[in-house]
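Researcher: Here's a chain I'd like modeled. Treat it as a single chain, no partners, no ligands.
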Amino acid sequence: MLDPSRVPVIVGVGTVKDRPADPSLALEPVALMAEALSRAEADSGATLLDRLDALDVVHEVSWPYADILGLLCGTLGINPAHRTYGPVGGETPVRFLHEAAQRIADGTSQVAAVCGGEAQHAVAQAQKQGIALPWHPRDENAPPRNRDYLAALQRRVGLDMPIRVYPLYENACQAAWGQTPQQGGAESAALWSQYSEAASRTQDAWLPRVVPPEEIATPGPANRMIAWPYPKLMTANPLVNQGAAVIVTSLAVARAAGIPEARCIPILGGAAANEPKDTMARPRFDMAPAMEVVLEAAVAIAGGDPAHFAEREFYSCFPCVPKMARRALGLPAGTPPTVAGGLTFHGAPLNNYMLHAACAMVRALRGHAPGTLGLLYGQGGFVTNHRTLVLGGEAGAAPIVTRDLQTVADARRVPPPPLVEGRTGDASVETHTVVFRADGKPDYGAVVLRLPDGARSMARVPREDAATLGVLMALDRSAVGRTGRLLPAAEGKVQTWVA
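Model: Modeled as a single isolated chain. Structure tokens:
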């Protein structure tokens, strides 16, 4: 048994959902964070916030502040020595929990907290209604999001947003798995219905109802197509007001505070690895070595068998991610993928969803027998940043595992094909999507192509080319591998592709 003062455990979790009819009455993000921290302290049953020596805040987007750390600490009257405000990335809550646990294991921290909050729903409603929100001043000098790390051709083709990039993985994976688009869509709809079932039972979920697969799969006025093959009910929903917080301490501190050990959830460790930030610098769109290696590391922590995880949370911005994760783990179809409900139905407080998932995981594990294991898999960027964290098990049985597997992931990745433009002639589809307008009609198609010499290129399909768009959206046959013609670009335009 390790020294209890060096054994990290989660002792308190807090979540909050705020949905007033009048957006001017909504809690601002920093207030959501403060409330979540207060609820996490109450959940622990001990007085811990005034002992906090470390605070990590997940990157907040909906209402940027000039000094969110100072504002939050002033609101709560706390003064932790370690204060970190995170970068953009859906995996950062998992990273922060892991780092907090490692500091406790190292003896450099005794009581730590991770928190985040977003109020994008209130911000959007206020903008729509012309209401000035009575919140702390917004930082008007906050830098805008910059995606210059994506290839210039990719940005010109219009594949510069998550909803337009993840379908590249979805369509490539369906083809690699031998599925027709209809079969792949049916799998996604069934999976997303599982997420909705979990959301219907989850505290503070935004859309807590069970949604049948047929409703998820069928486009319509309330479920318009966003980017092929994803309708709205298969996409993350950032229009939420939600906050979450987790308090981590040592087993020794928890015991001294009188917290029952049955409510202390150990943090056993995990792993991290990334894909290249430029998606066109990746050789394939039907796999992600960084995902595979971090999941394999989690399985090793669990004793070598993924079935040892009683509970799982697979990141779920879009269906391709948990479908890839399940296959990477070798789990059967129908395996429950979530404890929180996913970024569509639980809601997607931008970078902070996995902290809500961690709260749901702690609540779930407390309901199991002592020693039960749970897996958190978080992901950020464009299938870019990957992290796992294993919770549960026997506290202090082994040192915390912290593995940087970047070298291992890089070794699995073959060199990507060169990205070229200006070529014409035969070109086959490597992967693709069709981007839709707000009225539900196609705006344009975007294709990633392979040329006869193996080089990669990209092109658009204009909305007027209904025949080629029909090829890209056929239900009975994947367009991946379909050969067509890459045409010269008109002046000031990107090249087009015709089936």
